[in-house]
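#structure-requests
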Amino acid sequence: MPDSEKQEDEEISRSQSKREAEALQEIGERLVTLNASRLGQLDIPDKLLYAVREAKRLTANGAIRRQKQYIGKIMRGVDPVPILAKFQEWDGKSREQAAKFHELERWRDKLLADDKAISELVLAHPRADIQRLRTLIRNAHKEADAGKPPKSSRELFKELRQLMLEDSGPDDEADGEE
């Protein structure tokens, strides 16, 4: 019986080591998808960096697969924690930027659809230039009615983005107190 328990432990540890190797290879595959500036931000060994650049250069599917396996092999000697931390940082920023972008789109659509929305915007962002915003909204409606390109709608988006950037500056701490 003790021999079978040892055998089970070996099988479990072998499976676990395979899963870990596959996870490291997946990290390596993600490294291959990064652009040069992001790769430069990572503190990875030269051997790994060279292998990643080589994988980007390859075009044959079999060669790419073998190169990714090689990258996985190199990754076994590299501490993946800093790399994963950087990935999470980049992912968080991307999600945060997407959320801000969607918020700006919602504000623009709300301003174009409802005349009373401008007073909500002014309450949320007191620094807003009401006259400029009303002009852009009026021009956006005229352009939409005339079938022209949405130049004023884009300008409204830019104006909202600038307003949000100004308000997200040093006053963030004051907003938290209210």
